[in-house]
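Re-run with default settings, no changes from the original entry. Doing this only to confirm the output is reproducible before filing.
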Amino acid sequence: MNSTDSFIDEAVVAVFAGDGGNGAVSFRREKYVPRGGPDGGDGGRGGNVVVVADRNLATLVDQRMRPEIRAGRGANGQGGRKDGARGEDAVIRVPVGTVVLDADAPEGGPPLADLVRDGERIVVAKGGRGGLGNANFATPTRQAPDFATPARLGQVRRLRLSLKLLADVGLVGLPNAGKSTLLRRISAAKPRVAAYPFTTLVPSLGVVEVGERRFVVADLP
């Protein structure tokens, strides 16, 4: 790892868009209507996975704590031509300046997005379409269709989120003065600690949380 890499905060997450809901097979219960008449509703569309830039965030630590993110499934259709509800979107909030990449794409390929403005968003996985209920298939020659179509699956993909960090606090001191030990105590970072000078050869970053406040500390060689 070189010094440039040390100032990049990254997280890899698997995202699952919601599957759609199935179409319904249903018939009205009315006299003089052949088999009651088809009235099966459509299934709801699955929720999308959306990445949104948020100026109130500074690191990707929250994303590293959630390696899998799933959107909601669409509800199945019902009788009475009632369509199923749409699945709830899953929203991933990231700091402004986050680059969103397909983790399984060839190295050096273009990013999916470079989120440089607060509120900027991208749909990274689309929910599956809902199935059609049997009411859609009634014709003059086929007045009682007894079938519906199944839902489509939502998209699944792995994302790599990359953010170049600027530290809020830098630890500066003589070699072997305890800077790395201090960083290990106040954050979840694990810089190498040893009883000889110049153990730290590249900067190490740690995220410190005090109450609701969060800031980045750099252990500088």
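The chain has three helices and eleven strands. Residues 31 and 37 are 10 Å apart (CA to CA).
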